[in-house]
């Protein structure tokens, strides 16, 4: 019996959590349909003025952990911009739960290609076939790749840029180190391979949840909103009252969680030797910018991340920060290089976001604020009162970002009351799907980390501890 069976903390495996659909938190609100020209003008107000003056206190790695979390819960490969869609009919091909199915797939039986089936000592009874594949022999920091350079991982989107690919790689390595850690604690009587895998997956998932709840969400949604949702429960996203299966709210996927686009910087320092790399000159899908390839065909070791540039290790000499959470977007995102010029929708990411929101039949920002009991900000306060075609209201995504920039002193350190509540409630709800025990009513400390942090202490765990963890 594993320690988690004994504690009653068994995680649902991905195959136990059915794939779900998208749906609405705020049913019955009117659909908001601004004109294309109005959307274009709102987008133009979002161009970044001064990148150097727009940093937050959020360590840069959380922008890409946020993307990793998004890929853990949502995947809609079929809908198109400007199609009018019924959110209840959109299939979500990712399990609507924070269960790391993007890492573990459907487990070592059904997703055998993700696992090291011949690792360990071939003569040992415990050959560790449930370790995840992590790399080629050429570059220990890269994802495992086939001969064409395609990453062998549970979700191909986690190789779409260098930063998320190395976040994914960190989780692969963390799982394997946890396997080694459990074996080191086995006192000469290690569990069978199946039990060992389940125990390691449970432990990895629990610590992932802890980081999301106690580090990621406080940075993104704010400490007070996060704590209120954990302690007092969800006020608005109560899928259990409307459905016997969880769903992803379109207000989250189509607006609030797209806050991550405002965090993106124009340039990145990767390590001591590779610095000032422009956003779209980073490797994408394992490419080698300027022919700088490793022996395996993927990016060379020049692109291996030094995590002290991305997460808080206590010494901020190297640490980079996200841009503020506000209605200003880095200039490169207005000219996406993978969109053909002259296409419609255009290459402007802000325009594409707001047109997709219209596709998903989202309500206006003011209507959502009113439904939450929050005094709405009018368009004059938002700075878009003179734009025709808005009908006196604002696209939800723009509203959430603008509200965030006006919240706090200084503004933009985290999401405001509308966006923060939607994000915190949805993510906590996705954790509830997998593990009610972490969020026992009025007792958010029901479970605390059991793995040692970087200092060897038990009881807390951060992303810096995860990427540095060694058995």
Architecture overview:
- The protein is mainly α and 471 residues long.
- The protein contains 15 helices and six strands.
- The strands form three sheets. It has a two-stranded parallel sheet.
- Helix 3 (61-73) packs across helix 6 (162-184), helix 7 (193-221) runs antiparallel to helix 14 and helix 8 (223-232) packs across helix 14.
- 48% of the residues are buried.
- Residues 1-20, 75-83, 89-94, 120-126 and 437-444 have low confidence and may be disordered.
Notable traits:
single chain, 471 residues, mainly alpha, two-stranded parallel sheet, two-stranded antiparallel sheet, 15 helices, 33% helix, globular
Query: What would you call the quaternary organization?
Result: single chain
Tell me the number of helical segments per DSSP (H or I, 4 or more residues long).
Answer: 15
Beta content: under 5%
The CA-CA distance between the termini, in Å, is 22 Å
Q: Strands of the largest sheet, in order across it?
A: 1-3
The largest β sheet comes out as: 2 strands, parallel
The global form is globular
Query: What is the N-to-C succession of helices and strands?
Result: HEHEHHHHHHEHEEEHHHHHH
Share in helix: 25-40%
Report the strand count.
Answer: 6
Structural class: mainly alpha
Mean pLDDT: 84
Indicate the low-confidence ranges by residue numbers.
1-20, 75-83, 89-94, 120-126, 437-444
What would you report as the Rg, rounded to the nearest angstrom? 22 Å
């Amino acid at each position: 019996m594993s320690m988690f069976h004994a504690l009653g903390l068994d995680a649902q495996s991905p195959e136990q959590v059915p794939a779900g659909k998208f749906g609405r938190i705020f049913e019955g609100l009117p659909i908001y349909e601004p004109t294309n020209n109005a959307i274009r003008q709102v987008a133009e107000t979002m161009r970044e003025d001064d990148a150097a003056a727009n940093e937050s206190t959020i360590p840069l790695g959380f922008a890409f952990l946020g993307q990793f979390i998004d890929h853990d819960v949502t995947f809609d490969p079929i809908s198109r911009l400007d199609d009018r869609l019924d959110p209840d009919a959109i299939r979500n091909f990712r399990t609507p739960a924070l269960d790391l199915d993007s890492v573990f797939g459907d487990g070592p039986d059904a997703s055998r290609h993700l696992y090291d089936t011949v690792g360990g000592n071939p003569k040992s009874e415990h050959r560790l076939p449930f370790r995840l594949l992590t790399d080629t022999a050429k570059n220990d920091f890269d994802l495992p790749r086939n001969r064409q350079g395609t990453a062998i991982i549970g979700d191909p989107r986690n190789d779409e840029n260098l930063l998320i690919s190395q976040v994914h790689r960190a989780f692969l390595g963390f799982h394997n180190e946890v396997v080694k850690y459990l074996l080191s604690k086995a006192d000469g009587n290690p569990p069978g391979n199946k039990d060992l895998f389940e125990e390691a997956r449970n432990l990895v998932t629990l610590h992932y949840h802890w980081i999301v709840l106690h580090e990621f969400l406080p940075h993104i949604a704010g400490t007070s909103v996060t704590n209120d949702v954990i302690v007092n429960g969800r006020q608005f996203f109560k899928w259990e009252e409307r459905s016997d299966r969880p769903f992803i709210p379109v207000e989250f996927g189509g607006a609030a969680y797209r806050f991550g686009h405002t965090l993106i910087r124009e340039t990145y320092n990767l390590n001591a030797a590779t610095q000032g790399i422009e956003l779209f000159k980073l490797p994408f899908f394992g490419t080698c910018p300027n022919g700088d390839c490793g022996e395996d065909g993927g990016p060379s070791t020049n692109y291996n991340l030094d995590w002290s540039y991305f997460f808080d290790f206590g010494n901020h000499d190297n640490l980079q920060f996200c841009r503020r959470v506000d209605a200003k977007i880095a200039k490169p995102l207005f000219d996406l290089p993978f969109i053909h010029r002259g296409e419609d929708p255009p290459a402007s990411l802000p325009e594409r976001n707001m047109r997709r929101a219209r596709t998903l039949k989202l309500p206006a920002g003011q209507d959502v604020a009113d439904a939450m009991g929050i005094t709405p900000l009018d368009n004059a306060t938002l700075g878009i009162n003179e734009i025709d075609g808005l009908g006196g209201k604002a696209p939800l995504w723009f509203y959430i970002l603008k509200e965030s920039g006006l919240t706090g002193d200084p503004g933009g350190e985290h999401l405001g009351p509308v966006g923060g509540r939607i994000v915190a409630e949805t993510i906590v709800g996705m954790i509830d799907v997998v593990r009610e025990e972490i969020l026992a009513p009025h007792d958010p400390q029901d479970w605390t980390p059991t793995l040692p942090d970087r200092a060897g202490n038990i009881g807390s765990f951060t992303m810096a501890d995860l990427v540095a963890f060694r058995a």
